[in-house]
Inverse folding.
């Protein structure tokens, strides 16, 4: 079976208001990679049609934005600064700004 053409490649999003999640189907390699890597996306089914991969996934309704897609995950490695570190950084920044002018 031959690979599908570019005109046949698509990513489809179904937002059914009667469900608690948004369904996503794709046979676009770039979109599949992003869906598989995103922590908020649940892969329901995947396979191949000839040489072309496809994936079916779902996202909780609250994690979906029709303009920007799946909401970004909160970073778990945000640095928590102590008051001393914050003060030292502020002083370094002020010193650097003075040096520029």
């Amino acid at each position: 079976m031959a690979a599908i053409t570019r005109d046949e490649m698509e990513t489809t999003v179904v937002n059914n208001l009667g469900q608690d999640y948004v369904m996503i189907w794709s046979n676009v390699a770039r979109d599949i990679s992003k869906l598989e890597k995103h922590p908020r996306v649940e892969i329901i089914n995947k396979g191949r049609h000839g040489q072309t991969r496809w994936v079916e996934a779902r996202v909780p309704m609250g994690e979906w934005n029709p303009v920007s897609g799946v909401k970004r995950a909160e970073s778990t490695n945000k640095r928590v600064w102590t008051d001393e570190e914050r003060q030292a950084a502020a002083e370094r920044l002020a010193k650097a700004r003075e040096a520029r002018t």
